[in-house]
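Box 3.1. Reading complex inputs
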Amino acid sequence: MGISERKERQRAELRERILKAAREMVVREGFGALSMRKLAEAIEYAPATLYLHFENRDEIARELSVRGFQQLLEYLAPAARVEEPMERLTAAARAYVRFGLEQPETYRLIFMEDPKLTTALFGEGKEDAGAKAFAFLVQPLEELKAAGRLAADADTRQLAEVFWAGVHGIVSLKLTCPGFQGTEADVLASTLVTTFFHGLPGMKEAQRPSG
Amino acid sequence: MGISERKERQRAELRERILKAAREMVVREGFGALSMRKLAEAIEYAPATLYLHFENRDEIARELSVRGFQQLLEYLAPAARVEEPMERLTAAARAYVRFGLEQPETYRLIFMEDPKLTTALFGEGKEDAGAKAFAFLVQPLEELKAAGRLAADADTRQLAEVFWAGVHGIVSLKLTCPGFQGTEADVLASTLVTTFFHGLPGMKEAQRPSG
DNA sequence: GTGTTCAGTGAACGCTGTTCACAAAGTGTC
DNA sequence: GACACTTTGTGAACAGCGTTCACTGAACAC
């Protein structure tokens, strides 16, 4: 039965063509500029045909978002090979920021558009890509703890959340108010890493909270 | 000439009615749900009338954004009265996060929607409200530096940017993927403040970078 | 009373996402 | 080869959107 397989293949090919065209539109002009009609025109089909392959515009967005997240993981992958935990965390932060700046519209789509898109990536994804990315942050902290370089009662997950908020903040501020932040993003990332590890420069140990 | 004054007043009143209705719609259903036609219906005028008072939808958004930012400044105001710089920074962070969570759609509009909106608030505003808010972060750091509690060569502006990125990251992640971050926002804010000041708990001074 | 100004409007233009009855082509069965 | 069925694709339509524009009607100045 090669026929049904061929049909399946053709179907998948068209689906890919749609997604490719959609991605190009999003990357070039942003998610807001992604219109079903323009998308249909780009692949030379009638608008209604799109609905044979996707439930609606949201499903296309979701798929683009999932793939964008995979791309983020690819950016992060080299950092995983860094041995020293603090350096690894630093490398991950740099990679994350680089992804955000090099793929701004993709980043917007994933992390700044619709909560439904972002939530879909965490907790319920088939392989839970979100958790996988989050582990990039938690694990180095766990290793630091195991090595006695981080307080034994430190909440690594919570610290990772704060760290993530930091890099996400850097990227999203750069994307949303590009003019304001005078400092370049990678410099900000470096400063974030340094303060996250060591606090403010020149801050005396005696100033630490008593508790 | 009371006539033209009355006309002027009526004009201003209608403008306010429009903005009030617009704000309600945004607060209730988000900026995306703000439609000129529904807005016109809400104030019981024809859609075209809106264009006698605003150039277009964007101008309404800009005005709402400016007012939302004023509201943020009001949230921050009490923190300004805290004397101790570190405590003041902490209070500012808490107030900022509280604003973001209590006025999520307003926060989205100001900081996560259109770059044009956000940029308009910084650098060119008549009173540069953006710079005013940013001073909330820079000044405490300057005071710390003056008191010798922060390295003399520390770039306070850059540190403030990183700090801001941190709180913005906490808020915007909470708004965009509410389910994921397990930790409550105010706890994250506390942790952010602590690490920003003192680094990771249990991190030995000897681990500081050599440079 | 006359001329002018101006807030307000209905209708239209060109978009948008989405649906649905319908056509056409390909496939399986007799 | 003829028929039925499934899949693929479509044109037209619906309801909504932001925005524009010729036009009305009332209030004003003289």
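In summary: The two ends of chain B are 73 Å apart (CA to CA).
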